[in-house]
Amino acid sequence: MKKILVSTALLAGVLSYAGGFRVSLQGVKQLAMAHTSAHAEDASVTFFNPAGMSFIPTKLSVVAGGFGAGNKVTFQNLNTLQSTETDNPIGTPIYAAITYKPIENLSVGFSFSTPFGSTIKWPENWEGKELVQKMELKSYYFQPMVSVKLADWVSFGASYIYARGKVDWDKAVTQFSGQVNINDEKATGHGYGFGFYFRPDPKLDVSIAYRSAIDMKAKNGTATFKFPTQSPYSLLKLNAAGQDAFTATLPLVEEYTIGLTYKITPKWSVSADFNYHGWERYSKLTLDFANAPIGNQPSDPTVLVNPKNFKNSKTFRLGTQYAFSNIIYGRLGAYYDEAPYTTDNFIPETPSFDTFVLTGGVGFKLKQFGIDVAGGYAMPKSRDVNNANIGFYGQAKATAFYFGLGLSYNPF
């Protein structure tokens, strides 16, 4: 029984790292228009589709921006009617990119972004404390890229992705009146992206892009246990500091995107995107501990395997921009994002909901400089919680908001 309780607790914590959730905050201008992608006006297009670099109207383009992301999750036990709320800090996703055209039909660029990440903080003594008390997840994508203009109306682009990741997670181990911290700050992975960008008519932009899945390899993870006494150390085969090492391969999902922007008039444009996310790769998660016999495999008690049963999901986006003048631009948008798992696979480390989001913002162009501000308000749909694998039942609801400031510079 002790093995089972500790194993389940550890697994739940690392699920948060593997599951995470996609943070659609890679461009302030894009967020204002529902985070749509077919906007080849500056270097912010690079994250969405490297092929879009070929249609940026300047030889050099530089962008940078940041966001504040706040959210609160409430869980209610329907038997006791007791409610628990998270106390999450404001998240701060950032991005930056640069593009350059050394010759007429060739563009090169570099993009930095944080597309996966979250921080969630539940009360230390809440009823799900064996699943999670606090969890911080961060990921960083570094993408060099190139784009070739195949004709006046079409380009192809590709990028290499080097990813770094970090997880810092606390949870209770009530079987021994203690706590465990799961930590890894040097997980790495590699991936790629490619796409085509079309402008068959001056009024129409079409973007088709793919970003690969990335297997984040945690080779030096550390599980640190804290107990009132050291008596469980020998049982769990921990070192004198109450620690054991683990390795794991933690997947980040692939993404397919089709986007378009159409200029209804010279001042008014409408954009739409469809995203398909490959969450189904989370069929299971395997952790290999160095010494602790807390696994569930008869052939090797240090190996822990558990099904996840995530499902692929879709996002539908619609945005618009109107130029009030050559300087001021107004933007609005809305999108619907599906949760990547069903009710019976809900986990409190990375709570996900079917969510409708409203967005808006304003942009200012001052010769070569651009300033963009944007905001979004999310309305997640409350859902029942019925996860028999971890014994978690009740009802969950959430609220979330985003705001961002972006800068661009297109000197020549």
Description:
- Residues 1-20 have low confidence and may be disordered.
- A hairpin with a 4-residue loop joins strand 12 (255-263) and strand 13.
- The chain has four helices and 21 strands.
- The protein is elongated, with a radius of gyration of 23 Å.
- The chain has 412 residues and is mainly β.
- The chain has a single domain (28-409), classed as Beta Barrel (Porin).
- The relative contact order is 0.19.
- The chain has a 14-stranded antiparallel beta barrel with strand order 1-3-4-6-7-8-9-12-13-16-17-18-19-21.
- The chain starts with a helix and ends with a strand.
Helix % is under 10%
CATH-defined superfamily: Outer membrane protein transport protein (OMPP1/FadL/TodX)
In percent terms, what proportion of residues is strand?
Answer: over 45%
Number of helices in the DSSP assignment: 4
Concise synopsis of the structure shown:
One of its GO terms (molecular function) is long-chain fatty acid transporting porin activity. The chain is mainly β and 412 residues long. 8% of the residues lie in helices and 57% in strands.
Label this structure with key terms.
about 400 residues; 21 strands; 14-stranded antiparallel β-barrel; disordered N terminus; Porin; 4 helices; mainly beta; single chain; about 10% helix
Walk me through the topology.
Blueprint: H1 2-19, H2 28-32, H3 45-48, E1 60-76, E2 83-85, E3 94-103, E4 106-113, E5 117-121, E6 134-151, E7 154-173, E8 178-201, E9 204-211, E10 214-226, H4 231-236, E11 243-252, E12 255-263, E13 268-277, E14 284-289, E15 303-307, E16 313-323, E17 328-337, E18 355-366, E19 369-380, E20 383-387, E21 392-409
Antiparallel strand pairs: 1-2, 1-3, 1-21, 3-4, 4-6, 5-6, 6-7, 7-8, 8-9, 8-10, 9-12, 10-11, 11-14, 12-13, 13-16, 14-15, 16-17, 17-18, 18-19, 19-21, 20-21
